[in-house]
Amino acid sequence: MQNIHLTWRYALFIPYGRPLANINHRLDATLLARVNKLINVTINGTALYNIETAKGIQATESLALGVMYKFP
Q1: What DSSP line would sit under 26-47, residue for residue?
Q2: Among the listed residues 33, 15, 29, 32, the one whose alpha carbon sits nearest the alpha carbon of residue 59
Q3: Quick one: CA torsion of 56, 64, 4, 36, rounded to 10 degrees?
Q4: What is the CATH number that goes with domain 4-67?
């Protein structure tokens, strides 16, 4: 599938001198799809787990629709 591109990044942070229950996780993912010559669609998502901030997983997502034209 040459019109779909997925990139992701995972970050793990272990604080020094604290129990392993305090590990912070972050996952960023981006899906880019080229619909045709003019239209691109991008979906972004982030998941964050930090026990000191909230007890559950925090998530955010976004959707973008773009028009692209290349001048000759």
Answers
A1: EEEEEEEEE-SSSEEEEEEEEE
A2: 29
A3: 160
A4: 2.20.200
* CA-CA-CA-CA torsion sign (2, 65, 47, 27): positive
Q: How many angstroms separate the first and last alpha carbons of the chain?
A: 26
Nearest to 31 by CA among 50, 12, 53, 46: 46
* Strand partners for 4: 33
What residue type is 59 in one-letter code?
A: A
* Overall pTM > 0.85: no
Query: What is the C-alpha separation between 66 and 38, in angstroms, rounded?
Result: 8
Cβ atoms < 10 Å from Cβ of 43: 14
pLDDT in tens, 26-45: 999 999 999 888 999 999 99
